[in-house]
């Protein structure tokens, strides 16, 4: 039988050939039917090794004669797996981490290099524990035996495993210690929040059925429909209330967006980038499922998921529209409210996608900023005079947020920012500029930017 580490190696090999980490993981988990504990180990090893890649490479650079990038690709992957267990997996004894990594090297074409693998990992252990090869405590990320540069960007990048450019973007907005806390937050396993469907049940009823299934939850301040799972190990679809449409999975900060839009029963709402429908279905719930919501998106497969979600939640007021929201002409001046939940670089949700920090680049951010600018200028024409547009992203990059809005307002004299009302759940997150920005390490939820704009009758 193939063991968990070999399976993790196969998935990581695909990732290093360009596959998305979640696809590569799903592929091996479907192929090899594993017990729950092995599934969890494979998942942790794959996501962890991808996430901590820069730190693990720095350790290889330090302990091997050849730099990490000069090592054969698959050997580097094997070393990542071994070092990841030594650095971050307290439950795994150091000797087990070393022996299984040596075995992986032997079985995957590096039988001649097992001495090197063994030597490098033991050198790491000696460095941490001072020449003793016992299996004592493992260090935390900031106490790894790394030789660190003075430059704060590079130092944070190596310790917390982020590319320099992302750290620069954060350091322009936050202090060094705040940035460090944000990095640590983004390296945690993501939490799961539910949004209760008030058209089907109450939050108390959901709390009760979850409690009877031994699932611990807690409420989230300011958000009337949100519950955070504190303990749950099984597949989410097996929890009570899922099939009945009592709730959906949606992070708390994403729930703030539809509250900021504040849709009313009977209105016409256009959701310009709607799929897979987290916010569309929330809007329908807030409208009591009365009125019309146009759910537009250019990705048909994602819209199919939206339809499934709407069906499960038993919502009737949603109409699908497939295509590019920069091109629709049929919505001019008909929307009481428009939501533009724009495609973005996702710098606020890096903890949910282990490889996202390595996939995005300053160039992709530039392209997204251009797309967002085009989307807002066209979808603003969907709004009736006196109506509202909410612009939202799950990124923390000013080029995709503040800069898009500032440019839009400079070109649109008939629009102005309308900060959230005191009774809005979004009020607690508003800034003096009138927009809302959720910093994950401060608010313990996904990073988000959102702003509510009102179309006035003033065109001067
Ligand atoms: C952030 S996601 C939307 C998430 C969704 N609002 C939710 O809450 O579930 C952005 C979406 O924009 C869509 N998209 C990207 N470019 C688009 C365009 N030009 N026109 C319409 N949709 C677009 C993508 O397919 C993606 O589904």
Automatic annotation (TrEMBL):
Residues 129-148 are annotated as: Disordered. GO terms for molecular function: RNA binding; rRNA methyltransferase activity. One of its GO terms (biological process) is regulation of DNA-templated transcription. Keywords: Cytoplasm, Methyltransferase, RNA-binding, rRNA processing, S-adenosyl-L-methionine, Transferase. Its EC number is 2.1.1.176. It comes from the Bacteria. S-adenosyl-L-methionine binds at residues 273-279, 297, 324, 341. Residues 182-456 form the SAM-dependent MTase RsmB/NOP-type domain. It holds the Pfam family RsmF-B_ferredox. One of its GO terms (cellular component) is cytoplasm. It is found in: Cytoplasm. Belongs to the class I-like SAM-binding methyltransferase superfamily. RsmB/NOP family. Specifically methylates the cytosine at position 967 (m5C967) of 16S rRNA. This is 16S rRNA (cytosine(967)-C(5))-methyltransferase. The lineage of its organism: Bacteria, Bacillati, Cyanobacteriota, Cyanophyceae, Nostocales.
């Amino acid at each position: 039988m193939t063991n968990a580490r070999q399976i993790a190696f196969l998935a990581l090999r695909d990732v290093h050939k360009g596959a998305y980490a979640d696809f590569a993981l799903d592929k091996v988990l479907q192929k090899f039917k594993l017990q729950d504990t092995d599934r969890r180990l494979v998942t942790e090893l794959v996501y962890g090794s991808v996430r901590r890649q820069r730190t693990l490479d720095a350790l290889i650079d330090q302990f091997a004669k050849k730099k990490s990038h000069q090592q054969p690709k698959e050997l580097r992957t094997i070393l990542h797996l071994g070092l990841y267990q030594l650095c971050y997996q307290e439950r795994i004894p150091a000797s087990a981490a070393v022996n299984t990594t040596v075995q992986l090297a032997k079985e995957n074409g590096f039988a001649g290099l097992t001495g090197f693998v063994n030597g490098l990992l033991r050198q790491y252990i000696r460095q941490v524990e001072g020449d003793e090869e016992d299996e004592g405590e493992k260090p935390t990320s900031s106490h790894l035996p790394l030789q660190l540069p003075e430059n704060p960007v590079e130092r944070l990048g190596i310790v917390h495993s982020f590319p320099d450019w992302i750290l620069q973007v954060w350091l322009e907005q936050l202090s060094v210690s705040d940035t460090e806390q944000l990095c640590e937050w983004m390296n945690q396993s993501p939490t799961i929040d539910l949004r209760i469907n008030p058209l089907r049940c109450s939050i108390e009823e959901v709390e009760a059925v979850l409690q009877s299934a031994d699932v611990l939850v807690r409420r989230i301040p300011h958000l009337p429909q949100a519950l955070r799972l504190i303990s749950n190990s099984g597949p989410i679809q097996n929890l009570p209330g899922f099939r009945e449409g009592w709730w959906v999975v949606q992070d708390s900060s994403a729930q703030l967006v539809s509250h900021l839009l504040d849709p009313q029963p009977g209105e016409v709402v256009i959701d310009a980038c709607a799929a897979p429908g987290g916010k569309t279905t929330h809007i329908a719930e807030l409208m009591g499922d009365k009125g019309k919501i146009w759910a537009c998106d250019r990705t048909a497969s994602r819209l199919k998921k939206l339809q499934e979600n709407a069906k499960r939640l038993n919502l009737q007021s949603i109409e699908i529209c497939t295509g590019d929201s920069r091109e629709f002409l049929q919505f001019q001046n008909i929307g009481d409210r428009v939501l533009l939940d724009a495609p973005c670089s996702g710098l606020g949700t890096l903890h949910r996608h282990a490889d996202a920090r390595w996939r995005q680049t300053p160039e992709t951010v530039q392209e997204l900023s251009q797309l967002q600018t085009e989307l807002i200028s066209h979808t603003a024409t969907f709004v009736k005079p006196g109506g509202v547009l909410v612009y939202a992203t799950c990124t923390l990059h000013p080029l995709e947020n503040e800069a898009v809005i500032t440019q839009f307002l400079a070109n649109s004299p008939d629009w102005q920012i309308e900060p959230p009302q005191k009774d809005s759940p979004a009020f607690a997150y508003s800034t003096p500029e009138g927009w809302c920005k959720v910093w994950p390490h401060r608010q313990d939820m996904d990073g988000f930017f959102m702003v509510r704009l009102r179309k006035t009758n003033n065109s001067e």
